[in-house]
Amino acid sequence: MAASEVVDGMQRLQVEDDSGPATSSPETLRNINIVFIGHVDAGKSTLCGHLLYLTGNLDERTLEKYEKEAKSKGRESWKFAWALDLTEQERSKGKTTDYGVASFRTRTKHITIIDAPGHKAYVPAMISGTGQADVAILVISARKGEFEAGFERGGQTREHAMLAKTAGVRQLVVVVNKMDEPTVQWSQERFRDICDKLTPFLKQIGYRPQELSWVPVSGYSGENLRERVSPSVCSWYRGGSLLEVLDALKLPPRPLDVPVRMTVVDKFREMGVCILGKVESGIVRNGDRLLLMPPRLAVQVAGITVDAEEVPAAEPGDNVKLLVKGVEEDDIHPGQVLCAEDAPVEATTVFDGQIMLVEHKSILTAGYRCVAHIQAAAVEVVFERLLAEVDRRTNQIAKKYPKFVRPGSTFIARLAVAQPVCVTPFKDFAPLGRFMLRDEGTTIGAGVVLRIPGQRIVSGVKGATDSSSSEAAMT
Ligand SMILES: Nc1nc2c(ncn2[C@@H]2O[C@H](COP(=O)(O)OP(=O)(O)OP(=O)(O)O)[C@@H](O)[C@H]2O)c(=O)[nH]1
Predict the structure, then answer these.
(1) 156-166 helix and 123-131 helix, angle to the nearest 10 degrees
(2) What CATH number is associated with residue 267?
(3) Domain that holds residue 314
(4) Do 302 and 360 have their domain in common?
(5) Cys-Cys link to 112, which of 34, 103, 181, 227 (CB 3.0-4.6 A)?
């Protein structure tokens, strides 16, 4: 799906929700981005569509139209999913292939939802969607056999959860869906079993218990989405409905008083050159002069759109469409960063990273090549040197300069990328300090940037005079 179609979809679905329970004025609502992730057919699109319906953003007539169309294709149960699956290809196959965007309000938040594709082949699109999110909803199918298929090796449940963590999504809401299924019937045992199996894995990839919420729902019947599930249907669940849980989420403060960093996700032409992306820090104002890195091109902001509305400024967390002057469409690529002129971000072709190798056919040695996803960019990367193996429990160096590392290990390596990318050490600025590694269609690992050896910084960017040695990387 082209970026313009995503935006069209966003505009089409953007209907005011006056019927909802919002008590704050729209101006005071906190804007958050939620990505729906999970194994193929877990019910992500259905859940998104139903939430839009329940919050008044998908009217009865449109739903009836979707129902009729879906029925004519023998896919009646997909009526809600069609609110997000906009293309003919998505509808005929019942698979989301690109991320869809829509929005609704709750009592305390203005929520933008991103429906990420679940199928393995579309993980790169899923990475773009996740990179824009503050919260992830990990949708699990409770149907007999489906949870197991999604969670076992090769299923997308593990991969998506890990990608969300690496993309910096701090809050994870685990939605156990399809509780209405005849094989489940709101069984507490099934719900517990799923929670017990997932918890150790989510802990292992770095989620702390306070960053996790667990909600049983039926995305199809709508139970426990807006209203709490009735005790006559489910007698054991004492928590809130999904919308109540989302309403109660506590989110970190946003970095306003710092230089602008906006990651570029896509581009298109509409009254001029437009950039789609996410503001990570600082405030982007109409008229601002910014630098597009790499290759350090001056850009002037000529218009800002957030959630289909023109606004004078955008804040961290906002997914924005910027109308820009000074660059051509061909100058813009996913993965670039728009930054403050007086404090540009570094672009480099080499960096040292700490990597968790989760899936790999065999041992990994220096010289190994794969694809690194760094923000929205996908670039070829080569492991120049293995610098150290790290003890996962203590986070201390276990072995210097290992000849190889095994799947399951954590290690530090010097990585060289085929074209300049904007990265910063994770400890300095987390949004530009993470990356994922993929090979032959599988995510093999995830990492954080430790340092950037100064000698290979490109584009004449100042501020990095350090010429670190491999030893320095290990301290
Ligand atoms: N019984 C039941 N079926 C559901 C529920 N939610 C979704 N389904 C069905 O599960 C199938 C897949 O639903 P989708 O919403 O397309 O799943 P998805 O996760 O978006 O799939 P991808 O877009 O391919 O990743 C459809 O037939 C839905 O009708 C539910 O709560 N209960």
Answers:
(1) 40
(2) 2.40.30.10
(3) 261-340
(4) no
(5) 103
Average pLDDT over residues 111-130: 64
Distances (CA, A) of 472 to 82, 244, 260, 402, 453: 53, 48, 29, 16, 10
Write down the pLDDT at residue 152.
73
Domain boundary residue among 247, 270, 291? 247
Task: Please check whether residues 223 and 295 belong to one and the same domain.
Answer: no
Which residues, 6 or more positions from 395, have their beta carbon under 8 angstroms from its beta carbon?
A: none
Residues 239 and 288 occupy one common structural domain: no
User: What separation in Å is there between the alpha carbon of 45 and the centre of ligand 1?
Assistant: 7
* Per-residue pLDDT tens over the stretch 365-396: 999 999 999 988 999 999 999 999 988 667 78
Residue 245 neighbours by CB distance under 10 Å: 17
Q: Tens of pLDDT along 223-277?
A: 999 999 999 999 999 999 999 999 998 876 777 888 999 999 889 888 899 999 8
Is residue 451 a contact partner of residue 442, using CB atoms and an 8 Å limit? no
Single-letter code of the amino acid located at 291: L
CB 142 within 8 A of CB 178: yes
Report which of 94, 81, 164, 86 is spatially closest to residue 128, judged by C-alpha positions. 164
Give residues (CB < 6 A) around ligand 1: 40-46, 77-78, 81, 94-96, 117-119, 177-178, 180-181, 218-220
Report H helices in 73-181: 88-93, 123-131, 146-151, 156-166
Mean pLDDT of the chain: 80
Atom 27 in ligand 1: which residue has the minimum CA distance? 77
User: What's the angle, vertex CA 102, arms to CA 98 and CA 103, rounded to 5?
Assistant: 150
| Complex-level ipTM beyond the 0.95 threshold | yes
Q: Which of 224, 247, 270 is the last residue of a domain?
A: 247
